[in-house]
Structure formats: structure tokens, C-alpha cells
Amino acid sequence: MVHFVGAGPGAPDLITLRGAELLRKADCIIYAGSLVNPALLEMAKEGCEIHNSAAMTLEEVLEVMERMEAAGKETVRLHTGDASLFGAIREQMDALDERDIPYDDTPGVSSFCGAAAALNAEYTLPGVSQSLIITRMAGRTPVPEKEQLASMAQHGTSMVLFLSSGLLRKVQDELLRGGYQADTPAAIVYKATWPDEKVIRCTVGTLARRGAEEGIRKTALLLIGDFLDSCYERSRLYDPTFTTEFRQASAPKKQ
Ligand code: SAH
After folding, report:
1. pLDDT per residue over 96-128, tens digit each?
2. Does ligand 1 lie within 6 Å of residue 8's CB atom?
């Protein structure tokens, strides 16, 4: 069987308990070497066959999975963050279906959660934004016409951009063209949760300059939106005058 496992954003102790257990039991680990922390491989058992998929094609990855399956072995396919975001797992799963090889998927902590934690930020602040757009700037992989960055920017929501830190000037121009103000808060989070994590707070208007000054070209997320500001409304959930399924509202206090 093949187990797709989300490795988490970087810090090795941010893998899930289930993911760690699968890693410890695996006969073979194929890990995305460009972003998965190699410290996780220390969990591998003696004799585990380890491959770095950064230097492999899809066909080569499948060859290893097929060989392991034929020998009755367990393979872990270790993807960075959570594999459901920019993980290229669908094509692997479809190929496994064609070969009748069973698989399952263990979620991981995505880097957009790691980046929010690095900033002590909440994407969904009442009165500020209740939506998060997760997207990327079109690069070598195109983005559908309806999802071009400038049109996504029109919503003015909280936004996280993956795979875009090498295109900061273009990102900045598109965000401004779409309608974010130049002084809208922004942040660049490089290698969230890794020991060399770097957090750069800036604004939409200074994204490109600040990124260049700090030498940011890859392994970074761009966070945009007023959620990075200090103004918001208090949440209803914990408001004493708000009844929920679990708690009865108390009478407003007399002055
Ligand atoms: N599935 C992954 C994303 C893979 S795409 C996830 O859920 O996080 C690779 C992109 O993710 C990188 O180009 C970068 O934009 C982002 N990324 C991955 N790990 C990161 C980290 N620790 N810090 C900042 N960005 C990261």
C-alpha cells in the first residue's frame, strides 16, 4: 500500500502522530526533497529504502511504488505541508488506481498555517474578513483566466500566495491593479517553522522592495490583508451576550 503523508511546514515535530507512525513503519519513503525537512527521515526504520523525488519524474516515482507493492511492502509518499495544496497527488493517485495499488492520505499542517502562527495572526477576523483566498501568481504553471491575481484581489479578503515569491514585482502590481491599497498590510514568511524562518512585515506597496532587500526568492509565502492590522471586532462566539449551542447568554451586566 502507498500512504500519502503531509510532512508539515518544516519543524519535524509538526507532522501528525499518524504521519509519524506511518514513517516509522515504512519500508520505503519517497520524499519531496526540495521542501520536506530531512530531519523527518531519522524516523525511518533500519533498512528503509529512501528516495528524494526532487530528482525524479512521475514515472520514476510510480516505478518505485509498483516495485514495492509487488514485494508486499509499504511506501510512504511524503509531501510538504498538506498534500492537498499544490501537492501534485491527484496524478499519482490516478496512476495508482490504474495499477490497482491501494493508497490513503494523511493530512498535514500546511505552510499557510505555519506562516499565520509565525505572525500570531488570524486570517478570519470579524469585521475585517471572513474569507481566505489561497492562490498563486501564474508562472510556468498557468492560472485559469477567472482566477487571475488582479481579479482575486478585487475581493479585498485575506489572501495567501504560494509559489510566488520569485515574482514579487508582478504580484505587487497585480494586487494594486486589483484594488488593494498600497498601505494594505502584507507579510513575507520565509521557511515558516524552520530554524531559519524569517518574517518580513511590509505593505502591498513595499512587497517587492522588502523582498529584494531581504533576498527572498523562494520557499516563502506572501500574506496580504487587513487581518495583519490591529483593528477588528470582538468575536460573537465568546461574547457573554451571545447564546451558542454550548453556552447560554448571560444577562448584560448592570452599570
Ligand atoms: N503542500 C504545501 C505547498 C507546496 S507548494 C503546503 O501545504 O504548504 C510549495 C510552496 O509552498 C513554496 O513555493 C512556498 O510558497 C510554500 N511553502 C512551503 N513550505 C513553506 C514554509 N515552511 N514557509 C513558507 N512557505 C512555504
Report:
1. 999 999 999 999 999 999 999 999 999 999 999
2. no
